[in-house]
Amino acid sequence: MDLVPALQEPLKQPLKSVLGPATAKVMAEHLGLHTVGDLLHHYPRRYEERGQLTHLADLPMDEHVTVVAQVADARLHTFASARAPRGKGQRLEVTITDGSGRLQLVFFGNGVHKPHKELLPGTRAMFAGKVSVFNRRLQLAHPAYELLKGEDGEAVESWAGALIPMYPATAKLESWKIGKAVQTVLPSAQEALDPLPESLRAGRGLVTLPEALLKVHRPHTKADIADAHARLKWDEAFVLQVALARRRHADTQLPAVARVAVPDGLLAAFDDRLPFTLTEGQRKVSREIFADLATEHPMHRLLQGEVGSGKTLVALRAMLAVVDAGGQAAMLAPTEVLAQQHHRSVTEMMGELAEGGMLGGAEHGTKVVLLTGSMGAAARRQALLDLATGEAGIVIGTHALIEDKVQFHDLGLVVVDEQHRFGVEQRDALRGKGRQPPHLLVMTATPIPRTVAMTVFGDLETSVLDQLPAGRSPIASHVVPAADKPHFLARAWERVREEVAKGHQAYVVCPRIGDEEDDPKKAAAKKSAEDEAEKRPPLAVLDIAGRLAEGPLHGLKVEVLHGRMQPDDKDAVMRRFAAGETDVLVATTVIEVGVNVPNATVMVIMDADRFGVSQLHQLRGRVGRGAAPGLCLLVTEMPEASAARQRLNAVASTLDGFELSRIDLEQRREGDVLGQAQSGARSSLRVLAVIDDEEIIAEAREEAAAVVAADPDLEHLPGLRTALDALLDEEREQYLEKG
Asked: Which residues, 6 or more positions from 527, have their beta carbon under 8 angstroms from its beta carbon?
């Protein structure tokens, strides 16, 4: 992060290496650590105390772990095998304990001799290996180990006295080997250049960077760790916020065509046609957007809205305002199903206003064209011509909009739906099609906690739609424990029949399509007693559709929809469902966003535990879109005490997407959330937690804005510039440049 020449020194060099060449190679390939600075910023995940043993009971399956424990028992067994037919095979079983639980270690063959001599009862050591299950007991097979000789204190002293740092490790490099490597380079920490302005650091009582690095890797007390973390969190938050603040500042320097809505144009005609009044939230957000569009630098706005809060209507009004001002607007959707759905709903909302230049079209109208990869050649040629001549004011499409052939007459606004499904490059390619940078409106129906929005979308202004339009019905959600209470599942199918009898429709969602080759390794049953439900592959659309049509939903019109169907077939299925010709649609998550069928009132999600919290909330939002109340049934075979069931109970208990997004984030690693949004770049956050450290992020954003306003090029802050260069490796630089 804050690399200066000593810290930029590669760990592996042709002539001499800071570390052994084999260690340096593993660090580069498996941990992404290439320089002394990288290694100093590879912080311990946790610390073990000499007098305290870890909780063996909480070990995660199939993960590489490091534990500190004491040998309780060691037994050498002989056995006959193909390799040792005369009973000369050897197996050493060592039981280790932490006082609360036990774990078995097992060594075979020639590998038994050294541990048999060293791992005597009473010996304390660190053990590292992959947790597996044998005979229903947790075990580590052939673990690496390092003895902790408490008496002479030598080994333990080299692990920073009383506190032993535990590093994120890999199967090829144990935590203690990383610890030894860190101790080798730790003297270089003195040369770390401080990225925080001195006034900020002193004003907040934070230790210097060299001191923080020393304390995080070699703490003597828990207070040392707290000091180091407090400082390093500020580094991460502040440097990232400076990068985003500079991006915002650069955007204000870009030229853009101001698009000012005219009082009696297309937008006014559209508003007059609306059969309902806009919510106060929709009016407020529209005012924010129109104010941005009227400026001479590009709008960069994130529009967050709960499922069904009317985001598409707000985006359409923005597009119409741009058309009124002589420009064109493009809406980019992540899937063909969604692009077609948006095109249908926009043309329906606009009516004759979407038929500009056509017989029977309105005087103020404009053409609304669809552009997707699967269109026929003639329709595609016509759409491209309409865009190039300016005949079409609005285009809705998928990635097909980004191709080189697509030329716009005057692109004024880009609306990106479901931001997290697009790579940065795709968005940038579309923005590059304007003569000057077009305005950008990003929409998401996945509620994002405030700090994540500040961290991930920090270069965008944020608008939130949290009011549901009048007439929207509440959605009741229930967990259906299929294994514990099979009659609940039978009742679920009865409820579907009851809704269909009232003239409504239902969705059934499955995690898998069912025509893929099953991976025998994945399908192989796990030997874990707890996870019986995980033994089988996830339920599949093609299997379930057949079972339902022949069984509990016999006599109803059941159809399937999934991502590997031909685009024309998908569209035909959606049209039949939207027209009410199909009773039950059995689908994958292809229906997760944007599909709008107000007559659908029931959503049954099979193997609901296989979906994320935000995804379940998105899926649930497909029902209850009309006047009749919605019902969402979360079917699972997971036992009541499991974490998966608790997650489902949380989804069933609230319709507040922001609350659920917090739960979702707390249950996942930070990097997953940030990495996904940052186009796959490795998360730069090592000690900062975007939920827990909300205050630091908010304060860092303010400080960063002030620093950049006073010194946009950071001429007076060389340490901060160096830190930025390290944060913005090529991929991340692109992310921020193109954001």
From this structure: 133, 134, 136
